[in-house]
Amino acid sequence: MKVKFRDKIYESNERSSFLKLAESVGIDIKEVITVKAGGKLFDLSSSVPDVNEVEFLDFNSPEGKMVFWHSSAHILADAVKRLYPEALLGIGPPIDGGFYYDFYNLNIGDNDLKRIEEEMKAISKENNKFERIPLTREEAEKRLSGERFKLEILNDLTGEITLYRDGKFEDLCRGPHILSTGAVKAVKLLKVSGAYWKGDNKRESMTRIYGITFPSKEELDEYLKFLEERKAHDHKKIGRELELFEFLDVSPGSPFMLPKGTIIYNELVKLAREYDTKYGYQEVITPFIAKVDLWKISGHFDKYRENMFEVKPFESDEEYALKPMSCPFHVLIFKSKTRSYKELPLRISEHGIVHRYELEGALDGLLRTRVLQQNDAHVFVSEDQIEDEILFELKELKEIYEIFDLSPVFIAATRPDKRIGEDELWDKAENAIFRALEKAGYKYTIKEKDGSFYGPKIDIYVLDFTGKPEAAYAVSTIQVDFNLARRFDAKYTGKDDKEHIPVVIHRSILGSFGRFMGVILSNSKGELPLWLSPVQVKVLPISDSNKPYAEEVAERLMKDKIRVELDESNSTLDRKIRTSQLEKVPYTVVVGEKEEKSKTIAVRDRSGKTSYNVDLSKFISDLTEKIRLRSKA
């Protein structure tokens, strides 16, 4: 049997347990978090299944982090129950960047976190082993007596029922977990927030505690430094400071774009339209709402219903849903007339608004919203055109990413357990994705079972300010779908004069415009390139007597479609310059008596470099060219 750990490969026939297996090949079990075999994760104390390959995973692997943080959520729950016995347990999953746990009947604030942290540290020092306990439903009900939220979860479970015990604490869980609580060497609880049970605002209000843990104090210290840097890159903070957008309780998860934010947003839409036209897409506009019957045919009602907004007109029994995706509408457009193979690839784009019911705890500024406008498209192709079309779309993506100097990370996501369509079609779709990425020369990793319910996909991530792939943002996607057209009985006439079912390629380059805007704001700390900045030039008169000339300069700039603001406030010049800096304006033009006499301007760029005696016409010409070329500066 092949045994992998980090960059080394071993051979062993030991199968009594993963612990013995690790020992047999000399792997230090203290460095291991979990183990992967046959596509599944296991506890290290488990017996080795009948497989030919086993991989031991440390904290640096994504799966290792998830198991480590899942176990840490149990330690948090144990600590809370010790300190606040009346609290009831909700759920405690790992998330990107740590974990959280929801509790009912727990009245605490951020000031209480230190006490809970100390209790978690005490539990870690106890080095309690995580023990997996299979139970019958009746046994589980007895052991969870009094924990009504756990009993509700139990009631929905199918298949094997297991609890995990560490010390005296028990929690309903499928695992896997770390060997013992002692593996957690550093703890930081981050914040307390509110949440609704199961994300339903008609259910109980829960207290949610977020935290993060590490196998060493050094890693925690490094993370805390990272948090400080991340604050400067927080797009929500930048959005508030630059007056770009707001979020209001009247419509949770739905951004209100303010005038300056709308300029950025519209520039991104303009860019998407320009490139879609260049690459031969035909833009359409489809309804925001449709009868539930449509979503039943597409499969969304079955597989995506929990994320959809259902709508009923007043005094009517008709059922509708707000569209979460535009794909069924585009198939109907394809099907609206007789199609020939000569029309393929048929590229349909839409910058439409969709609505998705994201759980409140998952909402994150512009990065995760309930209403979003997508740079969306669907391409109808024959089977032999799939690879070429993916390569075509990757070319468009490359051009757009270069404008923003973005570094893409490619993930090929394969069939999930919850899916539609025959395995033979999934095989074809997955193989086409792999071959196209290889032909394009892109390195990629495979994420098993993470495809959409209708087809495998290429997810394209963008590195954040850290440059670490594990902290990248999911932005773009290309998805191969053999099933959608088939479900709608959409066909085209082939060269053989017979009817054929097209393959649908779902494609989104900028993804959600709001999300893309959030990513760009975060990576740039709000220092947007000239073409994207809501205010491109700020004009500052030194004194009141220079205001007429300042107005003349501003009018010249506006005439050439340069976005300009004139600061006529009574503040000092230094304060005006400082305000312009804080507003991240690319160029600040200062005019005084000297400039007025010579009909020139003084120009200060965002770096602080100042040029004097600048010819206004030359300045406008240079800026116009930079804007036209969408220069990065």
Task: Write structural notes for this entry.
The chain is α+β, with helices and mostly antiparallel strands and 633 residues long. The chain folds into 4 domains: 2-58, Phosphatidylinositol 3-kinase Catalytic Subunit, Chain A, domain 1 (Ubiquitin-like (UB roll)); 63-233, Threonyl-tRNA Synthetase, Chain A, domain 2; 245-524, BirA Bifunctional Protein, domain 2, CATH 3.30.930.10; 530-628, Anticodon-binding domain (Rossmann fold, 3-Layer(aba) Sandwich), CATH 3.40.50. The chain is built from 19 helices and 34 strands. The strands form 8 sheets. Strands 16, 20, 21, 22, 23, 24, 25, 26 and 29 form a 9-stranded mixed beta sheet that branches. Strands 2-1-5-3-4 form a 5-stranded mixed beta sheet, with helices on both faces. Strands 6, 7, 8, 12 and 13 form a 5-stranded antiparallel beta sheet that branches. Strand 30, helix 16 and strand 31 form a beta-alpha-beta unit. Helix 7 (235-241) crosses helix 15 (513-524) and helix 12 packs across helix 13.
